[in-house]
Amino acid sequence: MLTSRDCRICGREKDEQSASFFQDTCCGDCVAWGEKDLGRALDHNISLYRYDEAMQKWMARWKYRGDPALTAVFQKEWVQTWRRSYTSWKVMALPAGPGRTQERGFNQAVLLADLLPLIRLNGLEKKDEPKKQSKSTKNQRESLSYQPFYMSNQENIRFDGEKILLVDDIYTTGTTVRKAASVLRSAGAERVASFTLARSTGTLSRKEENAQ
Q1: How confident is the model at residue 212, as a pLDDT?
Q2: CA-wise closest residue to 43 among 182, 151, 168
Q3: Nearest to 195 by CA among 175, 170, 166
Q4: Distance (Å, whole) CA 128 – CA 8
Q5: Is the distance from CB of 165 to CB of 92 less than 8 angstroms?
Q6: Could you tell me where the DSSP H helices lie in 21-74?
Q7: Residues with Cβ < 8 Å from 20, sequence gap 6 or more?
Q8: Average pLDDT, integer, range 10-17
């Protein structure tokens, strides 16, 4: 499990390779995000595990070989982490596009949100991506202007003053959760944070990118 949050925003750990990338309590990526309107939509991210080789193998079995029962493996640590910091926040599973949900047979973010003992918020929807995010480089992902998220009923659904915790499986560049957060902010949310199962470890290898 991750035991430190050297970057107070995304949870990236500081080690010998990444130390020069940090500015005080933020990593360089989050400093750059802070200069963009989209970047400021997300308050912070907290992840349970590193997205290391062991987690990559587990994710492959869980997501891509269709074994949703494995979700229960994390339940104890997942719920304990939520109880420590987020019991006053409303939870929302990051939606998947209809095509992706049909392809896998489930949305892994919904499985993770269902482990938490409370009622989830709904209303955020996602269109199918024009191409898989795994085919984009880090810079391409961050520069994409395409907004896949939208409110299912913009006139009637509001989250005025709410603190919303977006649940997803992996935090990579933070682009996806920030795009979702920007829509929730526009619908009145006061704060939006993300709660993810794993945090990518520094610079992504090609193998890691293709696993997203």
Answers
A1: 35
A2: 182
A3: 166
A4: 31
A5: yes
A6: 28-33, 53-59
A7: none
A8: 79
